[in-house]
Amino acid sequence: MCGIVGYVGARSVVDVVIDGLRRLEYRGYDSAGVALVYQPEGADPYLAFDKKAGKLANLEAVLDGQDRSLEASCGIGHTRWATHGVPSDRNAHPHLSADGRIALIHNGIIENFGQLRAELEADGVEFLSDTDTEVAAHLLGREYAADGDLTEAMTRVCARLEGAFTLLAVAADDPDTVVGARRNSPLVVGLGDGEYFLASDVAAFIAYTTDAVELGQDQIVTISRESGITVRGFDGKPSEGKPFSVDWDIAAAEKGGFETFMRKEINEQPTAVADTLRGRIDETGQIVLDEVRMSDQDFRDIDKVFIIACGTSYHAGLVTKYAIEHWTRIPCEVELASEFRYRDPVLDRSTLVVAISQSGETMDTLMAVRHAKDQKARVLSISNTVGSTIPRESDAVLYTRAGIEVAVASTKAFLTQLAACYLVGLHLAQVRGIKYADEVSAVLDELVAAPGKIAKVIENLEPVREMARQCAALGTDRVLFIGRHVGYPVALEGALKLKELAYLHAEGFAAGELKHGPISLIEDGTPVIAIVPSPRGRSLLHDKIISNIQEVKARGAKVIAICEEGDRITAAHADFVFETPASPTLLSPLLTAVPLQEFAAELATALGRDIDQPRNLAKSVTVE
Ligand code: M6R
């Protein structure tokens, strides 16, 4: 949610900043801006800025037309996902102080901005935007005017702000300094050779360095070619960040020959799932978590599990409920993180809260984690981002190893979350004493075999693409998804993918619920995608969904079935079948979700949508 970059060093500052913004554009793309400080020889330094509504390309077009004979010495850049004020040139960042000496960019929400704005307006300050950010720019300008020290000024300003924010600022008469501050919002430092970077995430600077520093909560960082990096707390006390090395390279953030990041990421799923499983099962067959600040006894004492997450991660949680309850017999509830803390859930020391978040920064999930911790519950997080806030605040962590996911629509993050969730379920079962020891070891074997099966699904997706193109050509305006058991969350995920990418009305239903209302949505030709469970094993489920297929067909639906290979019964009833390799029911979402991702991507592409950056969305949602 908003991408932020700062740079001080000998390279072309504008190139580094724009390059960083390009890699962070997935965080928000409704406007972009830069502020650059120049130090001409024999003249006073000065500040220049440009900002433009729309995608980064609009800003680049403006910058391309400018005289570049003088290089800036430091700068900041921002790509926005609007919270306060419509996407427009005037609301784009940076925002300037009243005297024009300070430029500031912001990610997050300043919750007390109304009160601060009223106070500043009463003092005669004229506001030029509708954003909450502008109050911070004016406050910083005033504080900076007092002593000309940007770091001290930022420290005093942060003491007045409430909410979640990452701020970066430069001053017109300080050509060697960028100051950043963070509270409840991400900011990392990149360390180069005599050059320093600040960014919302490491993707912005891995082209230049893999050495990074993680900042703690409520910290202020100053980067300068002359003095390097200094960190202090909001209380002014000197502090230190935590150094780490980024273990993926620039190639991982590029499209690698695919037309879009989403297509590349769909194709990376077999590797991503294999990487997530690799080394997680030790020589004795026990599952190993990454960071555990809980004893085995703590795990044994757990009598209830809550899973909290948002969007796609929530759907991974819904699948996990079936697995955890079956393998451990512990009651498990799944809740949208944004709702969790507002309904006063019953939590105590024997409750395990599993927080699932690809980014590890989703504000709704972070707040739910903090609420759970306040109530003394234990928190285990599943995240794709090492060092992000949610894992840092959790008692135990299992990282998915999907690598960077750039497309806004989650694909490989979802599959690796499922893989990690299965490991957590099995870990709980093992620590507590395995009830179904044979089944658990068989499931582990099947999990290890899953990447190969996912690869087989991906190789055979062309008929799904053809079906999607037909739907687009027919002017389909709605698609329904139905499933039972773990097929139900997969149906929800398929519908979410189609909504966010194609902007079509798409709904996922528990197949049995159709007859209680939604069946009235079906008209002649309405596509219904049915996630059909294996005809083996829990065949009762299979029979039931075949009945549901017949019900919708009787009302004119065109049924597209995702079923197990060799399922002749489904083939006889559906208009189109896509077969996936045989798999245990609980693990089947690893396979059945993939054709739905491809269906949404192809239908959206046929409709001319931007599938990497759908409208109104952002990859990392760091506001509540
Ligand atoms: O980073 P998180 O997993 O916490 O993100 C949660 C949702 O915002 C996310 O899963 C979103 O629904 C997907 N991008 C949709 O494809």
Automatic annotation (TrEMBL):
Instruction: Give the species.
Output: Glycomyces algeriensis
Name the top EC class: transferase
Cite the SIS domain residue spans from the record. Answer: 295-434, 468-614
Q: Which reaction does it catalyse?
A: D-fructose 6-phosphate + L-glutamine = D-glucosamine 6-phosphate + L-glutamate
Q: Which residue positions are annotated as catalytic?
A: 2 (nucleophile), 619 (for fru-6p isomerization activity)
Keyword hit for Ribonucleoprotein: no
**Which domain of life, per UniProt?**
Bacteria
Q: What does this protein do?
A: Catalyzes the first step in hexosamine metabolism, converting fructose-6P into glucosamine-6P using glutamine as a nitrogen source.
Q: What is its EC number?
A: 2.6.1.16
Which Gene Ontology CC terms are recorded? cytosol
List locations, semicolon-separated. Cytoplasm
Query: Which HAMAP family does the record associate with it?
Result: GlmS
- Cite the Glutamine amidotransferase type-2 domain residue spans from the record: 2-226
The annotated subunit structure for this chain is: Homodimer.
Entry's PROSITE patterns?
A: GATASE_TYPE_2, SIS
Please provide the Gene Ontology terms (biological process) for this protein.
carbohydrate metabolic process; fructose 6-phosphate metabolic process; protein N-linked glycosylation; UDP-N-acetylglucosamine metabolic process
Molecular function as annotated in GO:
carbohydrate derivative binding; glutamine-fructose-6-phosphate transaminase (isomerizing) activity
What is the name of this protein? Glutamine--fructose-6-phosphate aminotransferase [isomerizing]
| Keyword terms, alphabetized | Aminotransferase, Cytoplasm, Glutamine amidotransferase, Repeat, Transferase
Q: Does the keyword Repeat apply?
A: yes
